[in-house]
Amino acid sequence: MELTLRSARRFLDQIPAPLVVAGVWGGELSEEGQRLDARHRGRLSRAMEALHFKGEFGETLLVSLEEGEEPGFALLFGLGKKRGVSLETLRQAGARLVREVARLGVKEAVAETFLAEKFGKKEASYALAEGALLGGYRWSGYKTETGKRSERLRLWLARSSGPAVERAEVVAEAVNYARSLVNEPPNILTPAELARRAEAMAQELGLQVEVWDEQRIQEAGMGAFYAVAQGSANPPRFIQLTYRPEAPAERVVAWVGKGLTFDTGGYSLKPSESQITMKGDMAGAAAVLAAMRAIARLKPPVEVRAYVAAAENMISGRAYRVSDVLKSLSGKTIEVLNTDAEGRLTLADAITYADRQGAQAIVELSTLTGACVVALGEKVAGLFANDPRWGREVREAAERAGEKVWPLPLEEEYREVLKSETADLRNTHGRSRAAGAITAALFLSEFTEKPLVHLDIAGPAYSEKEHPLGPAGGTGFGVRTLVELVSGR
Questions:
Q1: Alpha-carbon separation of residue 90 from 10, 62, 125 (angstroms)
Q2: Can you give the CATH number for the domain in which 315 is found?
Q3: Which of 125, 158, 191 is the last residue of a domain?
Q4: 254 forms bridges with which residues in the sheet?
Q5: Where do the Cytosol aminopeptidase domain residues begin and end (predicted)?
Q6: The CATH number of the domain where 94 resides is what?
């Protein structure tokens, strides 16, 4: 869907459009809805009474207005009960609203800024606009259908905050950019193609960019990263993006994203059904790159550096094996007990590099463990922090952004299981299935002493069915948290 949002200072009934949308909250018309109802001599309230419309969340009622006048129709949109309503309610309302208006087939509509009286014009405008733009996202893919009708919709938000709507457009566009990267098939989005797109984005937005090929990766000493990549015919790339504010930076933050553009599991081969979503094993990288896209436009006073170790984990005569010992960039040696625990190997070198380049704090995002999905399900990311203050800062940013994270412990007693008799570390905790997400986080914490937050996004990064803020596929999880962390509102 091609969705255009417009902010307007005028009242709902003062903007010409064929469809006008008013909210019903707690079973009653909103103030804007009451104004519209009075103008049309009680048509809306009579329809609600006649059809027993209570306005449960997402419920709609289409009411015909005066013939020959504009608007011709009013859409009553249910916001549910007053108790428990939140900004997330507004986001989901925006997404549902766009889908419902598109279903009706109109090209232009005007909606009130729901619940502005409760949350304030700025916050309500932002949440509603963000939800609408996320809900309007569609992945066109590579279908060869011809003559398919292109959906276009212009949606006006009455009495909204223009700056809030503009910011929502920037952030939502970045989230949708991440979604599209995750949705690309792996034969298209190879490590080299991911790097090419990062370079194109940097050129477009004025970011600094540097990309290393496989030779440079080896020369730098990234032995853990390169081992994962060496089995594929598609060579790895190490992607580095930098945003610097015009004034001296308040601090320097690094974002690291897992960039496995496809993961077979290597010789520790995944079952076939588990490989179906493995084109999304680079969702952490997608989030990092997309967040850089947003901050290049928002221009926060923080220097941000993004790092992606992009690779495929494949099987061949050159692929790394169980029992191999790898030398990481940090100098620490790693015994491989499972080639499907590959993400942490690529991230170990990327985190080390981010540390050495002068980052004062690091956030790393990765679809790292199925254990985290078992613990927290498909809606919530696990948050691990080696520094409580930095962990709280990231968690609070996620809460403001509307993304669900939950803190899990870096339990020091479990670090013992990562000790190897052959090398400094081993890449998994062996045959035990206990505490898999925690031991993976402990492994990553071995490669920096700077404040580090590891977000295990294996659950919420990809949805196999439609969800409240968008269609099946990549969700763009993490983008909003990263942007909120460095730019606020």
A1: 20, 20, 9
A2: 3.40.630.10
A3: 158
A4: 305, 362
A5: 338-345
A6: 3.40.220.10
Q: Is 122 labeled as catalytic in the residue annotation?
A: no
pLDDT of residue 203: 98
Task: Tell which of 130, 158, 186 closes a domain.
Answer: 158
Question: Which tokens go with 465?
Answer: 């069915």
Total of domains in the chain: 2
CA torsion angle for 351, 354, 358, 363 (degrees, to 10)? -70
Q: Which of 39, 81, 138, 270 is catalytic?
A: 270
The pLDDT tens digits of the residues spanning 185-209 come to: 999 999 999 999 999 999 999 999 9
Catalytic-role residue among 344, 395, 426, 480 = 344
Q: Does any domain span residue 297?
A: yes
Q: What is d(CA 241, CA 249) in angstroms, rounded to the nearest whole number?
A: 16
Would you list which residues are annotated within the binding site for Mn(2+)?
Answer: 258, 263, 281, 340, 342
Please say if 197 is a catalytic residue: no
State pLDDT tens for residues 344-362: 999 999 999 999 999 999 9
Residue 421 per-residue DSSP state: S
Which pLDDT does position 243 carry in this prediction?
Answer: 98
What pTM did the predictor assign? Answer: 0.96
Does residue 119 sit within a domain?
yes
Q: What is the pLDDT of residues 229-240, one digit of tens each?
A: 999 999 999 999
